[in-house]
Amino acid sequence: MNNESAAASNFIRTIIDEDIASGKYNGRVHTRFPPEPNGYLHIGHAKSIYLNYGLAEDYGGKFNLRFDDTNPAKEEQEYIDAIIEDVRWLGADWEDRLFYASDYFQQLYDWAIQLITAGLAYVDDLSAAEIREYRGTLTEPGRNSPYRDRSVAENLDLFERMKNGEFPDGSRVLRAKIDMSSPNINLRDPVMYRILHEPHPRTGTEWCIYPMYDWAHGQSDSIEGITHSICTLEFENNRPLYDWFLEKLGIYQPQQIEFARGNVSYTVMSKRKLLRLVQEGYVNGWDDPRMPTLSGLRRRGYTPEGIRNFWEMAGVAKANSVVELAMLESAIRDDLNWRTPRVMAVLDPVKLVVTNYPEDKTEWFDVPDYPQHKDSDQMRQVPFSRELYIEREDFMEDPPRRFYRLGPGREVRLLGAYYVTCTNFVKNEAGEVVEIHATYDPESSGGSTPDGRKVRGTIHWVSAAHAVEAEVRLYETLFTQPDPENTPAGQEFTVHLNPDSLKIIANARLEPGLAAAGVGDKFQFMRQGYFAVDPDTTPERPVFNLTVTLRDTWAKLQQK
Ligand code: ATP
Ligand code: MG
Fold this sequence. Notes:
- By secondary structure, the chain is α/β, with parallel strands linked by helices.
- The strands form 7 sheets. A 7-stranded mixed β-sheet has the order 12-25-26-27-23-24-13.
- The protein is elongated.
């Protein structure tokens, strides 16, 4: 993957190049990521973060992290902390520029007074329902509120009393006085302030009126000297409103640029839906490895580099689209491929007894950690003994000719150790194979034999006496449909939840070195997939998450 060429062209870069050429912001580039702390960040947010941060990086500019924390009813400190952790994990560095819209509450209040004084804002006593009714529709103009023509003095008095807590929630609002017949509904006297007797995570009970997002967002960008205020398409029709506010206030104006949200198949990204999955117990919290949240993906074993490469590949566009999950998984696999050591883990163990191997003997074989790196000679030692575990599916009682693994009379290579030939097998009363017997060729150590005899199959194994018993959590997509939001009338997206999205293997057997792995450590379990150590892990009982399997359907499609 060539990052630079992917990054080289997108319409936002073209705009910035032009702005630099024309000296619009004296050549400055200053971007920001402005989350609302009402949920955890998801992979779509990572697109916005890397876009904004990447532009600042590439143009030698600056990047801010700013919380648009204007709605205390839905916002919580837990979300603020999680968002900070996630943005830091992605590697987007805001240096010392972590801001909050709530830092600007006093300034926003003063600016509201400025607009009232200029006759450009008024206190409205209509209820929320009446305001909606007066607003009109896309085809019908709105109607003026009967309170629209209050005097400046009366507005100033009422607004101050709103602020002082004299009125109950919902009884009054402050509105901009723009144009109730504007074809752009955002300009039909939008609400600037509402009364909310609700403590705020940062300002406590200092305020009982709170600015609307639309009244806070553009001015926050302006205060911070943002040059290119990048947001998603749904804000296109808000741009004239943001510009109106900044113009009437006579303050610095950033350039807003809209791009299409990034979506990924087989998941949902609306924070409201993600919150439901958590609250209604469909998943085990925001950081459940099946969630598209950054904390979930991190726990699952995804890497920031893999996510960044994925969004680079997906590109930045003006039209909404859904990117295939297979492409995301492919990018993660590419990153994990070079990063992870190869280890042996048996997920569905069955015993293999090497009958001609001494009972009390252990040999330690040198196995390369990074066989995918031609120039790495880092080795570890793996114990071999008479009793091993192999994968149940690597043995067949009556195998077809093209089954290159173990079966009666068949010979395979045990990865990094000896050749073994199956001599016998034992079944329990239920007819399950419980033990396989084999003999080894003492001459075959190191993967070949003096007679140059070839075997087609190589299987992985662990020494039974030395193996670490571990819990391994296997995941499938959380939904069975590529577009879970597309439901038959009257049905909810939850009907598409995949009942098999989590499968727990209680007794996987791993090579002993893995007992020392720490939370977040990543491995390729050879022939199985990439796995990461879960925070639930303990030294007595390691817990691993399947990050992604080895089957790269995306890469295969690209080759065709
Ligand atoms: P809500 O729908 O609840 O407002 P949101 O996803 O817009 O949720 P914000 O906290 O407002 O959440 O998002 C912060 C920033 O991330 C915004 O600038 C938003 O445009 C951007 N963003 C959100 N979702 C995506 C996405 N899927 N792809 C790209 N950018 C996104
Ligand atoms: Mg939003």
